[in-house]
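Journal club side-thread
Mid-discussion, someone asked how the predicted structure for our own chain would compare to the paper's figures. Pasting it here so we can look after the session.
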Amino acid sequence: MRRTLLIPAVGALLLMTQPVAAQTAVRVGQPLARFDLLKPGVHRYARYRIEAGKRTLVDLWTRTLSFEALDGKASMRVHQRWDVAAPKPGGVRTLEQDSWFEPHTFRPLTHVRRETRDGSAVVKDYRFLPGRTIGLEDLAGNAASDFVLETAEPPFNFEHDMELLQALPLADGYAADIVFYDAGIDPKPDHYVFKVAGSEDIVGWDGRPVHCWVVTADYNTGVVRARFWFDKKSQILIREATDLPDGARLIKTLLPPEPGD
C-alpha cells in the first residue's frame, strides 16, 4: 500500500537532521540482523481517516505471526485480516492474506489473498520462485492460476514491509535499499529506500511515552510519502501516517492486546 504523508509530528519531537548515510542493500536470501525480534503473536491496528477534523474508522487490521512447518520445513507464517468498518454495497467486507516465509532471511515462499464481497469470495494464490512469481495452477478456484511474472531480482513481499523493517538494524542514519513486490498488484518489483529520519517519543496506547525510530519512505517520488514509528526496544510498528490523494489523512495505530493474545 502506498502512502503520502504531510502530517505534523505527534508527541515530544526529538527529530534531528541526520548525517547522510550510504544505503544498505537488503537482498533476499541474506540473514536479517534483528530477525529474532519477530516473535509469535497477534498485533491489531485501527485505521481511520481524518478529514475536516472528523475521524472515521476505516477497518480493523489483525496480523498474526507464527512459526510452523511448510512442506516439512521450518517456516514463518503471517496471516492478515482486515474487517471493514462500513462496507459499501458490493464492496469488500473482509480481506485476508496468508503468507509464508523462510526464517531468518524473510525470503517469501507463498502468498494467498482472499477477498469477500457480500458472501462471494475471490481467491488468488501466488508462489515466489527463483527468477519468477507464478500463480498456483493446482489450486481449485485460484483466480490467478495463469499468472507468471519474470523477475530479474528476487523481491520481498511488499505486504509485509512492517515485519521486514522490524528485523533490520535500525539506527541513526540507517537507510535500506529493498526490492519489494506486491504480487498481482504491482506491475513489477522495484527498489525502494527506507530511511531512519531520527527519533521521537510518542504517546502509546497506555498513555506512556514510547521511544521510537522514525522511518520514512518516498516510494521513488522524491518527496516523503510515508512515516513509520517503530518502538526502539522491540522495533514493533506503533503508528503509521499517510496523506491520501483526496486530501484526507490515514492513520494506523497499534491497539492494546486482547485477553488470550
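Post-session note: The chain has one helix and 17 strands.
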